[in-house]
Predict the structure.
Amino acid sequence: MVPGSAGFFFGGAKPFELTYRTSALTDVNQASYSFSGLSIGAPSGDRLVIAFCYTFSGSAISSVTIGGVSASTAATQSSGQVRSGLYYATVPSGTTATVAFSVGSGANAGVSVWTITGAQSSTPRDTGVATGIGSSTTIDVPAGGAILAGVGINRTGGIGSNTWSGLTERYDSPGFDTNLSNFSAASDVFATTQAARIVSVTHSASPTEQALAVASWR
């Protein structure tokens, strides 16, 4: 396994493996965003690529593609102009991919990317969303499966940082727009079944809008 990955092997089946790959961001006002050259690891016929997409925009995220493949929506949430969502697509070829989406009009945007191989289904097992300061939700996942999450933040001032509970942080972006907004991603693989696992995130610098999206796969 590559660094940052985790997985479990059951019987003769291909092992389930989750790997956090990379994140990217931009502070440019645009109607659509395209993040190219994102690492997605070795090609595999069953490779599922999951992207957390964030933007500060008056319009919802739409028309998401991953590696040129139209992506399905796992979970989306908005709070004011903060837009957060987890999207997924099966991308069997290539070692890098472009994640692209439309927002109508955005002040900034970012993505975090994971891959899963050996999943029993590409469809999420469970999803959860939340808004509000110290956003929290619950989610289920079978033994050997994974939970992935992302959050978008807008705040009144100060750089600050995000603190996750229930998952391990994989990325915490620097602040956008004079440090008034940012995003963060977290994930873990679980050896045992998790029923109504609590996933929450708080920020240290007076957030005013917070949108959390969570999904699980096995």
Remarks:
- The chain has one domain: 16-217.
- Residues 16-217 form one domain.
